[in-house]
Each structure stands twice: as structure tokens, then as C-alpha cells.
Amino acid sequence: MKTEHSKNRSAKQEYWQEHIRSWESSGLTQSSYCRENMLSLATFGYWRRKSSLKVSHEPQPRFFPLAVQSQVQEKQSSGFNTVRLVLQERRFMIEVEENFSASTLRRLITTLEQV
Question: Which domain of life is it from (predicted)?
Fold first, then answer.
């Protein structure tokens, strides 16, 4: 059974957690947020520090927008092309089928020369 004291403590904690979440999403400085919401800056700072001690200190993942450009690819046959690649010390040998894409072969050779 919760005592009156623990109920008050939970209510205070929830009150300040809500303000901390609102401040984080507001984009305001702590000082500006407290002034606009008539909160004590010192008390706000106390609860913010107290709540941050409970939060895991593992790095949070960050997501960045990614723009994807479509590329027109050469029309290829519906089947797979067979490539045989033999790597030796500073040399390589590539065997391809007759209908293998010339541009794909050039990209493969360029890549292998860089390795």
C-alpha cells in the first residue's frame, strides 16, 4: 500500500518528467522554457539531472534523412550471367559468357585493379 508521501513523490516526479519532455521537444533553452512556464530554473535543473541519472548512458541511435536517386540500369537478360574469376598475386583472370554486359565488366575490372 502506497503511503501519502510516496504518492506525492510520484506525482512530483511525473510533473517534472512531463516538463522535461516538453522542454526537450520545445527547442528552447532551459532558462527560456522555465521563464515561459513560470518554473524555478534551479528546481528544473535538479529534476533534469536526477532524471538523467536513471537513463541508460548507452549511445542513442541517430537517424538521418537519406535521399535515394534512381539510376537507370542497362537492360539485362532475365537469367544470371556466369562469371569465373581467378585471382593470383597481382593478376586476375575473368571469364564471362558471350552476352555479359560490357559496362558491368568494365566496373568489375576497375574494382579489381583497385584492390
Answer: Bacteria
